[in-house]
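STRUCTURE REQUEST FORM
Protein name: DinB family protein
Source organism: Hymenobacter rubripertinctus
Requested output: C-alpha cells
Priority: standard
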Amino acid sequence: MESAADFLADLARRTQALQVTLATELRPQSEAVLNHRPAPGSWSALECLEHLNRYGRHYLPALRQALARPARPAHRLAPVRFSWLGRKSYELVRPENAQPHRTLPRMNPVSSLLSAAAVVAELENQLVELARLIRTAPASDLNRKAVPVEFLRLLKLRNGEALLFVVAHAQRHLAQATRAAGAGRAAVCLPA
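Status: completed
Returned output:
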C-alpha cells in the first residue's frame, strides 16, 4: 500500500506534466493539425481532447463534491487502498496499456463540430481544477467510496481511485493526441 502523501505527490507531478504537454505540444498547433486523423477510424488530436473534456464534465464535479467532505482524523492520509473496480478501471486506462477500448457513444467525439480554441481552453481549465482537487485531497478520506462511475452511477470508486483514474485517463489520451498531432504536422506539411 502506498502512503497517501506519496500517492498525491505523484498525481500532482503527473497533472503538472499533463498541463505542460497541453501547453507546449498541442496548444500551439493549427486547427488543421489538430483535426487531422492519422488513420480511418482513429481520433484526431482535437477529438482526444474533447473526449477528456466529456469525462471531466462528469468526474470533476463528482470529485469536488466527494473531496469536500472532510475525513475523520483517523482516516486522513491513511494508506491508499484499491477495490477490484478501482484496479480494473485503472488497468483499462493506464497509459502503458496500448490495447484500444470502445467508449460510450456519448463520450465519443467523432463527427462533433469542435473549435480547437474552445476544446483546448476547457481542458486547460479542467487540468487546473484537477490540480486544485489533488491539493485539497489530504483533508479527505481517499478510501471512501464516493465517486459514481460515469457509465453506471450505482457503482462508486473510492476518492483516491477516482483521482488516479482521471489522471491516468488524461495521460493516455494526451499521449494519443500528441501522436495524432505529430501525424497531422507531417500530413499538413507534405507538398501537394
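Reviewer notes: Residues 4-189 form a domain with the Four Helix Bundle (Hemerythrin (Met), subunit A) fold (CATH 1.20.120.450). The first strand starts at residue 145 and ends at 149.
Form closed.
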